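In the design runs reported in the main text, the only information available to the sequence generator was the tokenized backbone. The following block is the verbatim input for one such run; it is reproduced so that readers can re-run the procedure and compare outputs position by position.
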């Protein structure tokens, strides 16, 4: 059974067992689940319900909260309605109950099912938005440890197959580029994995984040260090032999054995797993819960500290309301470019 089929059946079940109003309310929350699937490259009308494992649902919770902040509250976390958030999580929780208990289409053991329910329950609890919790903001020392680890030389045994050596070298160059790109742009990891080579803006050393579905695209900028890492990685990859148009190939690609010679985009989960691996090797896990999204928090605080301009910071993060962006787009873009250049000038000089 596909996700689309399961959602449709669940909503019919709600109309029959509860009320049409409940079904209509829950439909909005489940539409967010569909959007999340699409952003991961999983079409809801083709993806089986088996994908809804506890780890996947945990990633969806993070995505949904960011989506509500960015799309509904224009970047102001205090404007995220707790009741709305709780309703959306209730919709997903009820949907999973239906799949596991009522239809048995989703087979989870008792431990996994209980963990999933607890995760959803915690996500819907009220949070204080007065300040960013310390565990969400990496220190400069943690960032330095991350950079040092990702740039550490590879130890490749001489008897290792040449194909494996190439994959590992490319993975290292890619991971360096990812870390520097996230640090200097404040991009969401979902935006990063969707970047195509044709989205890169060579005149300003940046990229155009393409959203689609009527939402205004936005520009992000990279530091010289990040731009150099991206270009080094792409040159090493050598995509000329691909049958697809070069501009449509992903900027950040997979280099695992299953991908082979194909240039396939990364998933958000694979980037998250990379950060777990880097944090573990660097000894960061014992002191800080490092994720790709924490680098967005780092960028935001550093950019705001440099500029002292909350509105400009919101623009850099893509939080500005559409109306404000249309009115001040040119001014904000130029201010953003100047502030970004000042912020990373000393950083790049040290590289």
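Verbatim output:
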């Amino acid at each position: 059974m596909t996700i689309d089929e399961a959602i449709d059946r669940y909503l019919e079940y709600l109309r029959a067992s509860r009320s049409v109003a409940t079904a209509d309310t829950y439909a909005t929350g489940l539409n967010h689940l569909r959007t999340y699937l699409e952003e991961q490259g999983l079409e809801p009308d083709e993806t089986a319900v088996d994908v809804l494992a506890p780890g996947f649902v945990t990633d969806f919770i993070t995505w949904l909260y960011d989506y509500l902040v960015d799309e509904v509250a224009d970047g102001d976390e205090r404007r995220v309605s707790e009741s709305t958030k709780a309703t959306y999580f209730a919709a997903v929780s009820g949907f999973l109950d239906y799949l596991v208990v009522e239809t048995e289409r989703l087979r989870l053991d008792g431990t996994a099912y209980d963990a999933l329910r607890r995760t959803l329950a915690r996500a819907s609890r009220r949070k204080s938005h007065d300040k960013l919790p310390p565990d969400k903001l990496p220190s400069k020392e943690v960032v330095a440890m991350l950079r040092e680890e990702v740039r550490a030389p590879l130890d490749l045994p001489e008897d290792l197959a040449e194909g494996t050596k190439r994959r590992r070298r490319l993975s290292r160059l890619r991971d360096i580029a990812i870390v520097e790109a996230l640090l200097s742009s404040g991009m969401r990891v979902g935006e990063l994995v969707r970047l195509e080579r044709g989205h890169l803006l060579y005149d300003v050393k940046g990229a155009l984040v393409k959203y689609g579905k009527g939402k205004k695209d936005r520009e992000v900028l990279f530091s010289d260090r990040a731009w150099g890492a991206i270009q080094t990685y792409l040159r090493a990859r050598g995509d000329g032999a691909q049958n697809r148009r070069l501009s449509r190939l992903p900027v950040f690609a997979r280099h695992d054995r299953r991908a082979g010679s194909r240039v396939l985009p990364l998933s958000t989960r694979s980037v998250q797993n990379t950060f777990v691996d880097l944090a573990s090797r660097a000894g960061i896990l014992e002191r800080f819960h490092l994720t790709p999204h924490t680098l967005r928090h780092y960028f935001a605080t550093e950019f705001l500290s440099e500029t002292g301009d909350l509105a400009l910071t919101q623009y850099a993060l893509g939080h500005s309301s559409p109306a404000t962006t249309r009115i001040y787009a040119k001014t904000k873009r130029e201010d953003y470019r100047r502030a970004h250049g000042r912020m990373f000038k000393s950083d790049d000089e040290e590289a």
